[in-house]
Amino acid sequence: MDKIVKQFLDEVSARNQNEPEFMQAVAEVAETVIPYIVQHDIYYGQNILLRMAEPERVLSFRVAWIDDQEEIQVNRGYRVQMNSAIGPYKGGLRFHPSVNLSVLKFLAFEQTFKNSLTTLPMGGGKGGSDFNPKGRSDTEVMRFCQSFMTELYSHIGPNRDVPAGDIGVGGREIGYLFGQYKRLQNEFTGVLTGKGASFGGSLIRPEATGYGVVYFTQKMMEHQSKSIKGKTIAVSGSGNVAQYATEKCIQLGGKVLTLSDSSGYIMDPDGINQEKLAFIMNLKNVKRGRINAYVEQYPKASFHSGKTPWEVPCQIALPCATQNELNGDDAAILLKNGCICIGEGANMPCTPEAISQFKENKILFAPGKASNAGGVAVSGLEMAQNSLRYSWTREEVDNRLQVIMADIHQSCLKYGEENGYVDYVKGANIAGFVKVADAMLAQGVV
Ligand code: NDP
Q1: Which pTM was predicted?
Q2: How many CB atoms sit inside 10 A of residue 369's CB?
Q3: Alpha carbon of 241 to ligand 1 centroid (Å)
Q4: Which part of the chain is CATH 3.40.50.720?
Q5: What is the CATH number of domain 57-188?
Q6: In the structure, how many helices (H) and strands (E) does the chain have?
Q7: pLDDT digits over 345-357, tens only?
Q8: Closest Cα to atom 43, ligand 1: which residue?
Q9: Per CATH, is 208-371 categorized as 3.30.360.10?
């Protein structure tokens, strides 16, 4: 089996050179899905995973714009339209200086499996730019978004490709992007999700990814007759996902000790409560400040410059910042300190070395494509509400989100449970694969 997996990865690697993040994501899926393909005649010999690892379309374009000093700036924009077998391409836009084709292809590949798991009809895509919104004025961000959308608009649409937010793209950016799309197309449609509530956005969409991570984590704990209540929790990041994961942990009685950004992490021995979280939300979403401001406001907390939170003893770890932020050394420390559960809020935050250790020690580990699928799931619900020209209440959307996260957990059990141990990576990969593969086979070689 190892030989077949290696042959496959060599072939994908040969045609995607210098794309380490993309290869990391493909390898993680291949290791669990290829053994399944080999055992199932309908998939074997169809080159189905090779087809899934090749984007249907990749767009790359110039984004020129004028900054506040009247200097002309040039960025690169992308959209990777990965797979449309089960629905229109769907996935976020990331604005961050680290964005390149390898990062977006890994995210689009993951997204295809994740969207399949949600039970909703959405294909996989991802896009973004190497534009850095940090330190830019609102008008600069608006001009950038308008220039970006002026190229992108002809490639997307409510039945073709429906982008959303991701790192560096929140409610402000989605608003500017939507405004420009509407102006160019002269149409008010559900072409983007994560919109403001006054122009078609779904209630609970801002909360959905973070809440979903915690709903999924709670399901894993319950499956072992445990609970989040009373547990110590380390969260990384302090953006959209980290904020709402923290909020839901607080609501369920967990004690969140840490939050972070790219400058370091803060540790609050008393735990972050709702009032302290409101301070963080204002700091990050309105003032656009740095995390160390927390310790000026709450002096019992400490700031650890240039470090990640995984050295803090905790029972549950929720990495919610970015890819490869938790490595093998971090995993060893978490295990030594008695951590029993990891729920990935970010996409691919744990390195392969970290994941191997979690599996070897048989602790609970949820891969992002299962545990952070709540965001895109509620985006799918936003698309449905836009098509109906109707809005559901907070309770209705939250209930649907909880049902979807429970269904994803059940799918992971179906394909990943063996001898009392649940391999959530295997379960999520195979469950995500089966639906997309069946649709692709039915649609012929296209
Ligand atoms: P935000 O931009 O709101 O927040 C990102 C957070 O991560 C910030 O605190 C940021 O710190 C930190 N961060 C980003 N890059 C790095 C880095 N290289 N090193 C250390 N910290 C970093 O993004 P989101 O919360 O939306 O996204 C976080 C993760 O969750 C991403 O992996 C994203 O793909 C994933 N995700 C998001 C979904 C969503 O609905 N938003 C859905 C599913 C997954 P700083 O401000 O210093 O850069």
Answers
A1: 0.97
A2: 30
A3: 7
A4: 208-371
A5: 3.40.50.10860
A6: 16, 14
A7: 999 999 999 999 9
A8: 372
A9: no
